Amino acid sequence: MCGIVGYIGYRRVLPVLLDGLKRLEYRGYDSAGVAWPEKQKIMRIRAKGKLNMLEEALEDFRGTKTTIGLGHTRWATHGEPTEGNAHPHADCTGELVVVHNGIIENYYSLREELKKEGHVFSSETDTEVIAHLIEKYLEDDLEIAVSKALERVEGAYALGVLWLKQPDILIAARKQSPLVIGLAERECFMASDIPALLPYTNKVIFLEDGQMAALKGDSLELKSISDRKPLNKSIQEIKWDASMAEKAGFKHFMLKEIYEQPDAILNTYRGRIIPEKGQIKFDEINLDKDAIGRIKRIVLLACGTSWHAGLVGKYWIEKWAKIPVEVELASEFRYKELLIDNDYLTVPISQSGETADTLAGLRIAKELGSYIISICNVLGSTITRESDGTVYTHAGPEIGVASTKAFTSQLTALYLLALYLAQELGKLSSREIGEKLEGLMTVPSIIKERLPAWHESAKVLADKYYSYSDFLYLGRNLQFPIALEGALKLKEISYIHAEGYAAGEMKHGPIALIDRNMPVVALCPQDHVYEKMVSNIEEVRSRRGIVISVGVEGDEGLERISNEIITVSKVADDINPFIFTIPLQLIAYEIALARGCDVDQPRNLAKSVTVE
Ligand code: M6R
């Protein structure tokens, strides 16, 4: 949440900052600001609202030649989204500015202390205390002052600091919030996430907790915050390119990412499977057969959409590897009594690899002795660095706040993980594994072929149903998590109240909601619970609910009892979650569009939830 960008080098700074902020806008978009030194003062321009408001406010500064500066796009935690609360924040002199992502937990006591000492605050944010605290310790060296100030700060931060009197240096610092440094010839960048750096460099350093960096145009010094001792730099090369973080002609990132799913799925299994031998390779998880044999229980740990992926993964792992699985919401897991020990395998699942609750859960599980294998999309993210092994999903950057391709590539990783565990434990033969891999390999082409038709059907449905205020999504077995996911997609981008339910639970309460104003999206593959699902649809019909089915093509019986139907190909039961997900994403997308919602940047949300 919140996006930071900083630049020092030879380019004009404002286009670099604005470009970086655009690429990070998914992290927060209620206000934005930039600061740079010019004519013996710090220029600080901020604006409430989306980035275009800041761009308008910067119209008069197009000629600025300065080559150092900081920018920020905000997701409000302390203080409303106003211009006054937008970053960068300044000290009393206005000569020192700070951008921050995170939460300063002891900001109130620090603020009171600083106020008593005469500091004057002009915002309601927690961030502003950092600017004043650095000012308090500032003599003639910014780096020393930042390190002294951060010794006093409790909470999470990724920081960028700029001081008028040392205009050839930017300070970056990190504790619990992500910050990545980009290195190129005669220039350095800092950013909350990789997409902001991609147009300029693929050489990066991920700052670790407790580290700070002094960025100069032609050099970078990495130090520990506490004693400012120099640290070795570990430079990594990112494989993504800049075009992957652009819309490529699509109206929204979400739509582009929906259409990228065939590639995301394929890229996630590519190189990991040998279908003709019925074999899966997973060297990256660093677990041998004996270690796998000792696993008594698996905890899948995640939030939001990633949690839904975990719910599907549970079915596969229990069915094939015969290991009991618990799927935990990280925000609940971290505060309950846990029975975990070193017989447990914990699998945090996260697109961003920075979700605060998932990370906290990982740390607790590790502390209790569990081995950690994460499933993650972002290379070098905190969750991957703290895991014993990582299965990377190769979905490419996901920018739309609503997670789409990350979900289906997480499903792919979980499908492979389940089969791999079964393989290593001898629970499935290589012939059986080979068949399941063949099934998985049909998914990209099926999705690719059907996407245009699903999209057309979603448009028609959106046209008819966009004004309804409640939706119910029903599924059984493997489709239950997909019903949850469909409902989440709809509510987060169209602001329609939607609930996902296990269809069999209907009669235990939710059926009371059904009337002619309640569209019910029923997921109805021809699997072993098909008949049960049909009965649930009948129950909806007899209460005059509107039935929108997703079912197998040629299913005339289903067609007869549905008001609307989107058809999918008949595939093996275990493959259905991949296929059934996509029409639901498209329905949510088209309904949000029809309601005039901001699809990529829905209200109150941010892509990467790095605060509790
Ligand atoms: O980056 P993560 O996968 O850890 O994020 C978890 C959730 O915040 C995320 O899936 C969220 O629910 C999405 N906005 C859903 O579309």
Describe the secondary-structure layout.
Blueprint: E1 3-8, H1 13-24, E2 31-38, E3 41-48, H2 51-57, E4 68-74, E5 89-90, E6 96-104, H3 107-116, H4 128-137, H5 142-152, E7 155-163, E8 170-175, E9 180-184, E10 187-191, E11 203-206, E12 211-215, E13 220-224, E14 236-237, H6 253-259, H7 261-269, E15 273-274, E16 279-280, H8 289-293, E17 297-302, H9 304-321, E18 325-329, H10 330-333, E19 344-350, H11 356-367, E20 371-376, H12 382-385, E21 389-392, H13 405-425, H14 430-465, E22 470-475, H15 479-494, E23 497-502, E24 519-524, H16 530-541, E25 546-552, H17 556-561, E26 564-568, H18 576-594
Parallel strand pairs: 17-18, 17-19, 19-20, 20-21, 22-23, 22-24, 24-25, 25-26
Antiparallel strand pairs: 1-4, 1-10, 2-3, 2-4, 5-6, 6-7, 7-8, 8-12, 9-10, 9-11, 11-14, 12-13, 15-16
Helix pairs in contact: 3-4, 4-5, 7-13, 7-14, 9-13, 9-15, 13-14, 14-18, 15-18
The chain binds 5-amino-5-deoxy-1-O-phosphono-D-mannitol.
